[in-house]
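User: what does the whole thing look like in 3D?
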Amino acid sequence: MGTEKSQAAGAPATKRQFRIWRGDETGGDLKEYLVEVKEGEVVLDIIHRLQSTEAPDLACRWNCKAGKCGSCSVEINGKPKLACMTRMSTFTEDETISVTPLRTFPIVRDLVTDVSFNYEKARETPAFAPPPGVAPGDYRMQQVDVERSQEFRKCIECFLCQTVCHVIRDHEENKPAFSGPRYFIRAAELDMHPLDARDDRKEYAQAEQGLGYCNITKCCTEVCPEHIKITDNGIIPMKERVVDRKYDPLVWLGNKIFRRGQVPQTSVTSEHSPGAVRAPAAGPPGFHSHAGASHDPKAEAQAQAGVNWHREVPKPTAPTLDESGKLPLTELTFDRPAAPSPFGEDVSFPLPPEHLNYAHPEQDKH
Amino acid sequence: MTTTTRIERHHYDVVVIGAGGAGLRAAIEARLAGKKTAIISKSLFGKAHTVMAEGGAAAAMGNVNSRDSWQVHFRDTMRGGKFLNNFRMAELHAKESPQRIWELETYGALFDRTKDGKISQRNFGGHEYPRLAHVGDRTGLELIRTLQQKIVSLQQEDQREHGSYDARIRVFSETTITELLLDGDRVAGAFGYYRESGEFILFEAPAVVLATGGVGRSYKVTSNSWEYTGDGHALALRAGATLINMEFLQFHPTGMVWPPSVKGILVTESVRGDGGVLKNSEGKRFMFDYVPDVFRKQYADTEAEADRWYEDPDNNRRPPELLPRDEVARAINSEVKAGRGTPAGGVYLDIASRLPAEEIRRRLPSMYHQFKELADVDITREPMEVGPTCHYVMGGVEVDPDSGAAFGHVRGLFAAGEVSGGMHGSNRLGGNSLSDLLVFGKRAGGHAASYADGLASRPRVPVPAVETAVETALAPLQRDTGESPYVLQQDLQAVMGDLVGIIRREGELVDALARLGELRERVAKVSAAGGRRYNPGWHLALDLRNMLVVSECTAKAALERRESRGGHTREDHPTMDPAWRRVNQVCSLEGDIVHLDRKPLPRMRPELFTLFDRAELAKYLTDEELAEFDALTEEER
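Assistant: Here's the predicted 3D structure for the full assembly of 1003 residues, as structure tokens:
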């Protein structure tokens, strides 16, 4: 039965067992279907076949059927996937295939969920800030510089990373404070955008998007149909650099040397400081002048003259603790063995003299 | 029925139907003009068919070849459309597209770059110079995401200013409009339903912008998604507007033909732009046999010259694989019909033997990815199997070129993007649609806003029209004797695919019209099982009547036009006829009967006319027109 007609390219059709969740917000259950499957088909084809035969009102989102629009996200045998990208040939002949709606979002009907959570989070993420004074047509960027953001702009907003994320998957209570991987990479994309005028993307991700909730289990990366390295290229750099700024070891050292109340309005660090107190005139945003080299001619000149009194001290910041009141264990995700240098990995010793705040009692008198 | 007909009412200044590139750009413009704007999206926000555009957006920025200019772009567009284009639209498009692209960068778009940091531009079929701004092969996604994020940024402004994201621009996602409502000859609003709940929604608005895209869902093999049911075309017709050029449909030459589940999905033209070649089952690179006389001068006649072009385009002629789409589609069709096709009924597109695997993955990342995941085919190792697939409709709402306002007897209706007609003539060049929707989306949005401003009084929505709209919408659910909408759709697709497809014949077109007549009666009695909540069967039942009326327009216009030109090929009239070039066929609706009229094409302004070579014009124009051209050039001397 079922094979008498419709033999595509000589391939025989077989019947396969499906279990599809049917219902709405009031409840529902898995319904069994025995459906014809032809060679070369994907799960979405089977859903379409069901719609045109025994289940005409089976609700399922889809659009492009080519893995480009991210509409047909469902959970297939419990794994979040695009129905249009899941080939039937990846299942064994006798395997029962279960198709259920995304677990993290409220049910609308059958395989359709209410994904408005994602659109709300999108609206809360600050938009691209165009560089002031640059006319349309005058934007200049190098390919290597745009590529990092381009990786994240491949996102098709299928929300598979959002549904798989354990912070919200079974924790409705975390939703208000947590934007999810999709919007962490949006923040990362803007942070890495060569011309974005805002320089607080990381701080924003930490303070407003709930980046701290993420403990890097990489589930999001695993389900991403675009193979975006969400964790490695997006979340970890954002976390590392947030931590980096908040625990600036040189700030810590400065605070030790100049005791409370004695802290002068200078420091050994230049822009290695939270956005709020960044020296306004120094360099383009995103340009981190660490202790190893200074590119600021004013600072250089001052260094020649002795003490660099005009450097600003970053305000000491309270450590960010996680919910358990402990520091996040970032070394677990660090890219090299052993503990990182307490002075930051990009500081080499000896420090160049112009970065020291030491005033020689004799030479610097005048 | 016991269901209450609760109708949610909204008041807006401008309602934009469609949330693809044109719709979003129109909405941005209307909002920037200070109008309260609604965007109606048939699917989720950001999923529109624009994401499928791969190649790029054509704009004569001259970043890669400084000899490019709007004049050259204009000429290419007219040539591609076989001179049937509305010249004014082609002119505006060529002039304004660079600004529209640059503007996207201020919204946050990240195009691929040249060495000196400008927007990189790539070669594409029919374009004389590298002209397509692109992002790998996912330019459409970049465009839609950028516009989507711009709308979010406007909403954030409104949130700061008015305390609500939705204060001045709101997206109604998964909402379908079924009727436009009129007050006399003025647009008064739009009626539709939320897909999720099945609840009705009424927008009262003096200006409506149609940006609903195309009609491809009426075809068996198509790259278009379920949304492409010709809603805007049908809404415009029913509101008293007219459609032009409906006989011209573009069949993309290279859609996937294997595996069957993804039949119709496009393989971007940039595969050919980057060196891919077409071969038949005998391994022959056959495109050299299909260069039409009008193109001989620009295209190579030996493989050696064609291959040199990729490296040195200034001193060699282009490979024939980069001929305009209709020529390539027809060539593939002929090869397959001559028995030199692949087992699945296509031809081979080979890039594997032309570029190193690493280079293919770098230049065509999503193509590589798509084939690997969907078909388990590694395009760096084996050739693809491709064939023509219904892709784009050149025809659409007849509009004023400058404002996008619909012609016919309706006011307050605007159209932009694929749903509008004229810009592309009989055939669209690749890359011209992304720039089309930016240029004319902006124009339609801006003009809709100023139209709303200029009104002395707001049109009122007549109550009986709303009641009729509710009845029509609920009818398929209340009938249980009719046929399934899925069956009717398949039958319609079969008629259009088999009889009004890429190659057309008089007898078949007559037959098609008869069958469409039968289908009309069956569609009027369609019934949908289930309730109103997210019921795809019901949604399809409501879309069917739109698909049907648009299909009738196409079939009627195709029967009437006795020549072959661009996206319209008549086997019984295989050549271009200069007399037909001067004619647009205009469809209108009288009752529910499609009426066809002829209308002369607007005459090109002299300074545009003289941009062309006489020898080239001679292939397209009548003697009378050529005499006019000679008189013009005479004056100049």
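In plain terms: Chain A has three domains: 11-113, 116-131+140-245, 254-280+289-366. Residues 1-10, 259-295, 302-317 of chain A have pLDDT under 50 and may be disordered.
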